[in-house]
Specification:
Layout (H helix, E strand, L loop, with lengths): L3 H17 L1 H33 L7 H4 L11 H46 L3 H6 L2 H42 L1 H17 L1 H30 L1 H6 L3 H51 L4 H45 L18 E8 L8 E7 L5 E5 L6 H8 L7 E6 L2 E2 L5 H5 L2 E4 L10 H6 L6 H10 L4 H4 L17 H15 L3 E5 L7 H13 L5 E5 L5 H4 L2 E4 L5
Parallel strand pairs: 3-8, 3-9, 6-7, 7-8
Antiparallel strand pairs: 1-2, 1-4, 4-5
Helix pairs in contact: 1-11, 2-4, 2-6, 2-11, 4-6, 4-11, 6-7, 6-8, 6-11, 7-10, 8-10, 8-11, 10-11, 15-17
Length: 562
Amino acid sequence: MLMPATLSSVRAYLASLWQTVPKLLLLAFGLLLLGSFTEGIGILMLVPVVNLMSDPSQTLPPWLASLPGVDRELISLKVILPFFLILLLTRSALVYWREMAMTQIRLHTTDELRKTLFESMLYSTWSQRINSQQHQELEQLTNGVNRVGMATFYILKMLTTVILLVVYAAVSILIAPLALLIACAVGAMVLLMFRRIFKQAAAFGMGLTNSNKQLYQRVMFFLNGMKTVKACAYEPQQLDAFVLSQQELRENQQAYQHKTALQQLAFQGVSATLLCLLVYLGFEVWQLGVAELIVLIVMFSRMMPMLSDLQGNAQRLLHMLSAFDDIEHAIASNRQGYEANQSSQIAFPQASLAFDNVSFAYPGREPLLKNRTIEFPLNKITLLKGPSGQGKTTIIDILATLLTPSEGAVMLDGVPLGVSAHHSWRQQISYLSQEPFLFDGSIRDNILWGEYYSDDEIWQTLQLCCAAFVADLPLKLDTAVGERGVQLSGGQRQRLVLARALIRKRPLLILDEATNALDSETEKQIFLTLQQQRHVMTIVLVSHSEQAEAFADKSISLSVPF
């Protein structure tokens, strides 16, 4: 018996398969039936072929002679062998088409699951994003989805095996029904003996999922903190932790393989014993002819490994389905407050942008903002300043609807900004965080980021952002910046992300200490540029810079109650 949780996982996964590729599943099932039918006919045809080869005058088997239209005088090797060849070629073609259909099912369902998971991550709320664990998500998108793909493979293989076993059973009934009864009884006994391993397979699968996540966590820990690791000579500690995670993963896999190998060994022993018993009974007790006995041996020598494969694939399926459960749980969690459903469109305010009695507290903490009412003048620069921890970043995150206030609202022309319009509102915002984000591509790629602007527009914007250094680079706009922009200095990275924001000319620009890596003179030039952009955008700036206040139209100190 499978555990209830495991049965529900199998049902959920089968439902997911049907929902994703119903037509391909029906096609594969049809090809499976046709292929299995032709294989059964082919095995039955061995009886008259062997009989005719050993004794051309021998009578036909009763099951063949009873078929309508069969004339003994017309049955010969010259007639049967071409038919047998056509049958084998037909089956080979059906197997080819079946394998192609099954491959399409596996690849399509894997891609669809990975896309669904990634989409759920993209459209999850910012609160969920900051509480997520990147190593787990990376494991789910790569190794986890691949394991689900293998689960699809095992399900399709099990379906193939079941249909073939049914066909072989039908053939056995025609030749030696008692042999089939004995084989079924022994097979059922063997499967009952190994029912405990089904339960263990699911547990091993969950252990494998957790071990993979720990290994990914260790790698991500190093990649995110590699500069600190190198600078402080922490390599030995990191290597020891990595080896420990790897050892845990290896031990889980070894334990699972040990159980599986023992089971296969026992099953093969039982199969060999059963085959010898059936040969003896067929020859001495049932007195089968040579042809029938050969076919019986061929069938049962194939059926017993199939039963073993069926049991093994069911076990592997349970081992892999823990990854499906894990991914489905992640998707469901990400879809709480799913932002892809936010379809309302909203225009940028024409008169006022403000907070109205906004309060906010992070879970388990004291309120960071309480009944704050703030006016952000349109087409002006508003500066938020004050000591760290006073809520400056929280305010701009609420303004960008990354965070939702517990009380109060963001007001656009005196109207509360509804949740259904959050996504539309963000399409009108350029947001520069404290850590400039650049990806591994060229300077042009990083500025365009999926949109199109001419090189002239790019150069003009770079000039506004004091990024003349780009013109001095050998490849200019085609210069690779490296992963996270490691080929550039901190100040150069900040100027490039500012250029990316300004070239889009969105009506609201938010900067969270986005100039803290610039020297004093360059920062001054950037602030002058921002002043010149006020006629096309409203700017909200968080900065500890002393000269920022001189360029701001409005300054709000969060160290002072208001």
